[in-house]
Structure formats: structure tokens, C-alpha cells
Amino acid sequence: MDFLRLPKRTTGSRSYGLTSIVDFGTPVGELKHILGDYHQFIDIAKIGIGSAYIAPNLKEKIKLYQEYGIRPYFGGTLFEKCYLQNKLSEYLSWLAELGIEWVEVSNGTFDIPLEERLEIVSEFKRDFWVIAEVGSKDSECDMPVTEWKQEIDYFLNAGCQYVITEGRDSGTAGIYDQNGRIKSNLVKNLLEELDDKKIIFEAPTHKHQMYFINEIGPNVNLGNVKLADVLILEAQRQGLRSETFYLEEQEWKLPL
Fold first, then answer.
1. Where are the alpha helices (DSSP H) in the chain?
2. What digits encode the pLDDT tens for the residues 11-23?
């Protein structure tokens, strides 16, 4: 079918317009069925929090994602746990053994000085693609806009492929207030000076996702998407939901 005028979407091995899902323990059998139908809508898979460390059938799950061209990595909480216990070298060895090519450097739970995180990125990028996360999981922590901009800029210049804006799976921290409202002034300020194609906005709910689609366009990078929501999200991106209905009329275009 190809008779409707829809917003232009990036396809194939995308570098932006990414959908990054969060896997909080989907059984491998169930995952096979989901990816069989919806893999074309998923680019990155985060095995959430520190669950990868105790997940059964982890190697099989990683292989399954990779067979469908999806890039798996482990949540930043596991990185922070390894940092706290001085086990980063063991962590990297384990990732290499598992065939994981992406690693997250975060600061959401355990406070790691910015300078040290940047040094870690410089070390990790020798062998891995690095994603950094900016923002705290503490809903009462309110970083100034200048600090958000500075950290994102520093991480991109340090060699990170993408920077994630913290939002938690609940959408109640980081770029959201504790009631789940989007800090729209913060987002607009970030977009004024930074390349949105290098930022993954955590958007765990349909409301959050539709905000970013309408604000930035159908090819915004979105993270912490639930596996069950990937088809709905793609429909939203393509103007097939009431709240994004007029996207094609705005003539969103891919760069030449």
C-alpha cells in the first residue's frame, strides 16, 4: 500500500529517527514473536536497569536482537554499579565476550564527576560505541539549562555517538517534572544550540512521544519506548494518530 501522503521517515540502518526500546525482562520466546513482526521499527534495545547481569538466556537474547539488525546494550545502572565497585575492566571484558558493541556511561543514580565521566568515555570509545546519559533519576534534582547544554556538548565532543536525556521509565525525572510534565522550556533551549539528531529523548509514554514528534518532527530520536508500543509509536511518527494527524501537511523533509 502506498496511496497516502505521509511524513518522510528514515529507513534501513538509521543514524537518526531512532526508536530505542527498553527491555525489562521480555522472555526470549515472546521476543522472537515481537521482533518477527516489528523489528523494522526498532533500532536500539536497552536491556533495562541492571537486569542484564541476572537475566536468563542473555546470550540468546543478544543474538536475537543482532540477527534483526537491532543494537543491544545494557542500562546505565549496571555501568554505575560496576563503577562503584571498581569493576569497570571486568564489565568491559564481559561486554566483549557477549558481543556487545555499545556501552552507556551515565550518572543517574551514583554521582560521578563530569571530568571523570569524560575520561571514561575517552577510554571506552577505543573498543565500543559510547552513549552518554545526562540528567538525574532524582525527580527533585533540577539541573540548570546551561549545565544540560554543557554536558551534552562535552560528551558529543568527547566521541559519544549519542547523548540520552534522562526521563526514567516513568517519565518523572530529568526532562520531566515529578508529575510527568515535560520541561518544555528546557527542551526548546536544548534545541536552539544542539543537534537533535545526536540526542535520544527518553519518552516512555504516548503523550511524551507525541510532544517530541510535534516539536521536532517524525524523525526525532526517542528512547525508553516499551516493546508493546513500537507499532503505535511508528503510527504516531507517520501522522496516523489524531494528535499527530497533520504532520504530512507540515512537509517534514529529510536533509538533502
1. 28-38, 58-67, 76-84, 88-98, 114-124, 145-158, 184-193, 206-216, 230-237
2. 999 999 999 999 9
